[in-house]
Task: inverse folding
């Protein structure tokens, strides 16, 4: 534990990340359902044009502990994407509407295509992105709000942007968000801060789809263990009272 | 092995026991006379057994779903985390279980250092323990490679490259270990095979470790030999069983907290990025439990000597029963050793801390001083201390506060008979 904290601080010593009241933190942390649904909307309308999510399936959108779209909604979402399938009986690949069992449609055919379309930088897959960055959710949340003009004297190459939370401050991704970019289905005002929070919550769920189940089980398991420990403590005292030694 | 002759009550029991004395063994294990003054630092043996069994059971379950292939390993781990029923639970128990295992083994080792449990007649128990510890490190290292994340790949590259320091044959050995010219699929499949094998080797050694323990019996906080059974001992069951159980439950609460609430804090974020041979991470750091040795490795400017120093740091422990010349076991009666003991604990913690930091500037200097002190402790301080230290008088037995005992049972008996 001591060392874990120690090496996390190396990455964090550069800048203090922005923080917000994450619904999924704490012993009883759960995802904010609204934030997950809005976050999915941000992902699909903004991020998904470059970032894949290859480990997440459309069925996950309707599962418990996730955005909890109804099954019909999830089916409709899946059907709105073209999925390349095959080969069929004639040996041909073909496109068909997506099904619940499909993984999220990929924006590019492969990594090379993604790099070619993005000036050599590969937009990372977002399935486990929150867990793959040492600052976690706060880092993603900060990065999305960290775009600013470079300090005087900093020269940026063509296609490189300045972000105060990015490692080395130079990022190939252009500022993806601007106020009002997305028209939220639930009427929430889509400020950059709001969208950053929603998409980060969605990405946290994508990285840890069983987080709610984990928190619930953890609480029960620890309460159970504490009660059992107390009972065992008293029976131990009882047993050892036959010996004139302190336990 | 048994201290008394056990005769089963039933006719079948007697018939069976004459052919395979399992009932005698069970009877020996339940009645095994244990010093009654063992404190909670002695409960970690049981806790470690629990850790090993937990790792084996969760590991077998993971192996049913994991795919040891460079193109599929990372994805199969995500499959376990998302789609396998309670896969996330099993994997988080296994991943954090490794850390818990090392936490417990470090406490177990440092308990032995404090109370002199490695001294005669327990040298073989100690040496088997060191071999178990070495195998644990090998298993943990290879296990960390299996998810095939960035830290897996680059950690494997750094550690296997250490063998290239061996003169003449080094490069050949590295190629042989990799099964190719870089860490790749053949490396992954052999690491998986060995990661599967080693826990069972450990299990066998644990049996020998406990067997060797049951010959002289447990050491104890006073560090004197005691008569067994006597009023200084209690039968293993129920006294030690319930106490070990209580300590295990406390340990499990800490374990559960990590698994359910901070399952990734002991890992490195980069290991959630799939391995990429073309991108080197900014810092390549091993898991926390290997950091002190990593610091020793990096504190020596020469690669070969660094590897030698790192290996010596572990192997020197095997010579400990002979490096420590003091006849008194427990640090309780060794006022000077007690102080050096705590300095060593601090030294190892400092090594762990600098092992996580970049090897430069002040960190490197601290690492060098701490490395030098580590060897100084074992090679100079301990041997000299045995001759120079004025130890405190030790009691005759655990029950009697009468002083004038000796760590050795034979001399203790002689003194006792002289006193009578």
Result:
């Amino acid at each position: 534990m001591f060392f874990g904290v120690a090496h996390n601080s190396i990455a964090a010593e550069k800048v203090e990340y922005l923080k917000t009241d994450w619904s999924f933190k704490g012993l009883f942390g759960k995802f904010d359902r609204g934030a997950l649904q809005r976050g999915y909307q941000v992902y699909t309308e903004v991020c998904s044009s470059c970032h894949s999510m290859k480990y997440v399936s459309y069925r996950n959108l309707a599962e418990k502990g996730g955005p909890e779209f109804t099954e019909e909604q999830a089916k409709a979402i899946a059907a709105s994407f073209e999925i390349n399938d095959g080969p069929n009986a004639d040996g041909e690949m073909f496109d068909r509407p997506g099904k619940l069992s499909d993984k999220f449609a990929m924006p590019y055919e492969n990594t090379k295509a993604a790099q070619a379309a993005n000036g050599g930088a590969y937009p990372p897959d977002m399935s486990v992105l929150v867990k793959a960055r040492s600052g976690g959710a706060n880092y993603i949340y900060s990065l999305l709000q960290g775009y600013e003009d470079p300090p005087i004297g900093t020269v940026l190459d063509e296609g490189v942007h300045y972000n105060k939370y990015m490692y080395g401050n130079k990022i190939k991704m252009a500022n993806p968000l601007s106020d009002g970019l997305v028209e939220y289905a639930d009427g929430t005002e889509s400020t950059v801060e709001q969208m950053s929070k929603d998409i980060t919550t969605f990405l946290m769920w994508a990285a840890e789809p069983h987080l709610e189940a984990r928190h619930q089980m953890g609480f029960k398991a620890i309460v159970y263990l504490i009660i059992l420990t107390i009972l065992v403590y008293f029976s131990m005292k009882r047993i050892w009272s036959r010996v004139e030694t302190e336990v | 092995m048994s201290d008394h002759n056990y005769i089963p009550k039933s006719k079948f029991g007697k018939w069976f026991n004459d052919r395979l004395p399992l009932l005698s063994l069970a009877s020996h294990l339940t009645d095994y006379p244990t010093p009654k003054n063992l404190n909670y630092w002695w409960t970690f043996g049981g806790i470690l057994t629990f850790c090993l069994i937990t790792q084996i059971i969760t590991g077998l379950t993971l192996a049913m779903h994991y795919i040891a292939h460079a193109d599929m390993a990372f994805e199969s781990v995500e499959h376990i985390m998302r789609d396998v029923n309670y896969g996330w639970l099993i994997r988080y128990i296994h991943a954090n279980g490794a850390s818990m295992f090392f936490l417990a083994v470090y406490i177990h080792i440092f308990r032995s250092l404090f109370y002199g449990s490695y001294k005669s007649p327990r040298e073989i128990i100690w040496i088997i323990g060191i071999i178990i510890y070495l195998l644990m490190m090998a298993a943990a290292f290879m296990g960390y490679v299996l998810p095939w994340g960035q830290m897996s790949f680059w950690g494997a590259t750094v550690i296997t490259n250490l063998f290239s320091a061996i003169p003449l044959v080094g490069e050949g050995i590295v190629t042989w270990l990799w099964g190719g010219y870089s860490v790749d699929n053949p490396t992954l499949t052999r690491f998986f095979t060995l990661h599967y094998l080693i826990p069972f080797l450990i299990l066998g050694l644990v049996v020998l470790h406990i067997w060797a323990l049951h010959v002289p019996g447990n050491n104890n906080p006073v560090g004197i030999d005691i008569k067994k059974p006597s009023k200084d001992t209690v039968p293993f069951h129920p006294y030690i069983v319930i106490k070990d159980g209580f300590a295990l439950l406390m340990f499990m609460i800490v374990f559960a907290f990590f698994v359910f609430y901070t399952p990734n804090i002991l890992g490195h974020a980069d290991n959630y990025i799939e391995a990429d041979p073309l991108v080197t991470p900014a810092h390549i750091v091993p898991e926390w439990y290997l950091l002190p040795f990593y610091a020793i490795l990096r504190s020596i400017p020469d690669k070969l000597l660094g590897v030698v120093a790192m290996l010596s740091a572990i192997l020197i422990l095997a010579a400990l029963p002979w490096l420590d010349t003091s006849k008194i076991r427990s640090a309780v009666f060794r006022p000077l050793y007690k102080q050096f003991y705590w300095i060593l604990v601090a030294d190892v913690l400092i090594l762990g801390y600098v092992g996580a930091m970049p090897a430069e500037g002040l960190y490197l200097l601290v690492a060098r001083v701490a490395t030098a002190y580590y060897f100084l402790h074992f090679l100079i301080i301990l041997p000299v201390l045995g001759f120079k230290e004025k130890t405190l008088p030790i009691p005759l037995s655990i029950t009697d506060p009468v002083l004038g005992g000796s760590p050795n049972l034979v001399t203790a008996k002689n003194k006792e008979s002289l006193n009578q």
Remarks:
- Chain A touches chain B through 44 residues (CB under 8 Å).
